[in-house]
Design a protein that fits this description.
single chain; about 200 residues; mainly alpha; 6 helices
């Protein structure tokens, strides 16, 4: 009986460790990309800074997500797709929200960026329309919620951050992790992502 309890505890500990190794770097990718973008370009105060920051955030997030998910079948095109989408989102959001950093503008920019990133990431991996729809919609909602939460806890919105902070990253990472684990298993093209 004791051996069985030890085995259960060991298996649980190993699963938790694997989960942490897989998702913690992804969680940290957002603030890391944002910090690099902030150091390199400053705040998102004009189109050039927004595009440059968007590129850095996209490459950083795409690369770290790829590393976390590659053993589950995600290809390296994920990185490029994420970077292109964040640059395009930076352009659209610069004109749509005129560099405003209030809660509504940040949430709206999260909707736009999340949708573009979701479409780009999913199309880089599959042409299955169910997968594209579910991943795009989920990413759009996750990024909008991430920006909304960040807008409520951020102490210096005038700093014009390129991406949501750690609190938003936690929501986006957990939310999209749940989608990968529970909402997508019925889609054949995403079967490798659920292992």
């Amino acid at each position: 009986m004791l051996y069985s309890a030890k085995k259960v505890f060991y298996n649980l500990a190993m699963k938790l460790t694997e989960l942490l190794i897989r998702w913690v770097p992804t969680l940290l990718a957002f603030p890391l990309g944002g910090a690099i973008a902030k150091i390199t370009f400053g705040g998102a105060s004009n189109l050039g800074k927004s595009v440059g920051g968007g590129l850095i955030v996209g490459v950083t997030v795409g690369l770290i997500q790829f590393i976390a998910l590659k053993k589950y079948g995600v290809g390296s095109s994920w990185i490029t797709a994420t970077a292109i989408a964040t640059v395009l989102a930076a352009v659209i959001n610069s004109y749509s929200f005129s560099f405003k950093f209030d809660s509504a503008s940040l949430t709206g920019s999260g909707l736009v960026a999340g949708l573009l990133v979701g479409i780009a990431q999913s199309l880089s991996q599959s042409r299955d329309l169910k997968f594209v729809f579910v991943w795009s919609f989920s990413t759009m909602i996750a990024w909008a919620l991430a920006w909304f939460i960040t807008s409520k806890v951020i102490v210096d919105p005038e700093a014009q951050y390129q991406i949501f902070g750690s609190s938003g990253a936690l929501v986006a990472t957990v939310g999209l992790g749940v989608v990968l684990k529970f909402a997508l298993p019925w889609i054949n093209s995403s079967a490798n992502l659920m292992k």
